[in-house]
């Protein structure tokens, strides 16, 4: 029995019209750079991923480094087949939204890192966004490195140019590239935490300054941004520890010591982020206490003015009863006398409330 076309395929076209096939996009549209490195030196020329890996395996020396930017499933499939990447890791690399992790598939490592960028703003009390995140995936093999980035602030292109000037590091192989990427990502965490610390100092000064109004929503926003940074930092500790302690055979001993240094930097960042979380919780409590205190002061003022206004209201209510036998009703100076009594009584109550700091 022939299969029926899906509703999604029929929607939007006339009866009998064939579906329009997707427009193929060449892999070059997603490839940022592809290079062959032998003894720490980049070979000249432009390379496709198939020609690059063929050259390395013919030489039995060096490695290939190919960088991709947000490829789709069809475009990454050719790279996956050439380098033997596992389909589950490829799926994670395409769809992104992954936690930082390190997985091993046969002779290939797959590592996910969260990239962060500090969003510049005039003041933390008016900012709508403080931290912007992206993702960077790295496939590591014995003779290749494949980087897949999501977002535009990973800085991999600048890192490649820096490494190409350091032949000794590149001569260590693909694991040196993985270390350089992890080191740059963690260094960006340090820079972001320093900037956030300055913002929290500004927020703290305004919260505890007298006669200043601080919106608690802005503190919640900053706490949300710190939590976003925490989700990028905390899960990365275990993958770096595995790379530093020698459980991964693809990482030689001479590179493991560098990963230990990155792990130390990440520990420093984790401590800062944990401190930010606690401090922002304290600032939220302080801001809410300040708001509550201000509301109490406002209520006291409203109550005090209501007490003063009740005096003329009471007198007007009595004289508005329209009785004939009212005291001083037919006296010539009755009206000014009543007004004078009201004013004196109001001033007396105002003075008493002022002395008790209700006004």
Automatic annotation (TrEMBL):
The chain crosses the membrane at residues 302-321, 333-353. Residues 1-22 are annotated as: Disordered. Pfam families: CorA. It is found in: Cell membrane; Membrane. It catalyses: Mg(2+)(in) = Mg(2+)(out). One of its GO terms (cellular component) is plasma membrane. It comes from the Bacteria. GO terms for molecular function: cobalt ion binding; cobalt ion transmembrane transporter activity; magnesium ion binding; magnesium ion transmembrane transporter activity. Coiled coil: none annotated. It is a multi-pass membrane protein. Keywords: Cell membrane, Ion transport, Magnesium, Membrane, Transmembrane, Transmembrane helix, Transport. Mediates influx of magnesium ions. Alternates between open and closed states. Activated by low cytoplasmic Mg(2+) levels. Inactive when cytoplasmic Mg(2+) levels are high. Belongs to the CorA metal ion transporter (MIT) (TC 1.A.35) family. This is Magnesium transport protein CorA. It comes from Kutzneria albida DSM 43870. The lineage of its organism: Bacteria, Bacillati, Actinomycetota, Actinomycetes, Pseudonocardiales.
